[in-house]
Amino acid sequence: MHLEILVEGQTELTVLSMLMPRIIGPYQQPHTWKIHKHRGIGSLPEDPSARPNWLDTSLLHNLPSRLTSGTVGKRSRIVLEQKRIWARRIVPEMDVERNRSGSFHCFRDGLRRLTA
Asked: What pTM did the predictor assign?
């Protein structure tokens, strides 16, 4: 079975890319998947004082300028990059069978039922 999966942003894409083989088995044995960032959080505009691009529907792109300018914008970029680093470090330590999160159980079990 081939799965098309939508996630919010790069961190979620990183996490799920690493977890999928542990949830439903190695890629192409027999399942395949493609994970897409769908709108999601997006990225901060380079110039917070510029008019928003109405075609970009991501969250951060459309925040009011007063929320994205200065140190808040700089910290947000740093936080987003740090989340990606944490994801790459934490996921190898996760035990998908013993995870305590109810929502993770629902996601994991749903994928397994779908691909059974």
From this structure: 0.68
> Residue 66 has which token pair?
């007063």
Asked whether 40 and 58 are in contact (CB, 8 A), the reply is: yes
* φ and ψ at residue 97, rounded to 5 degrees: -85, -25
Q: How far is it, in rounded angstroms, from Cα 102 to Cα 115?
A: 20
- Tell me how far apart the alpha carbons of residues 94 and 70 are, in angstroms, rounded to a whole number: 36
Provide the pairing of β-strand 2-7 with 32-37: parallel
First to last CA, the chain: 9
AA letter at 18 = M
Residues 50-67 pLDDT 10s:
777 777 777 666 665 554
Helices (H), 3-69: 10-24, 65-68
Structure tokens at 65: 């300028």
Count the Cβ atoms, other than its own, within 10 Å of residue 45.
Answer: 20
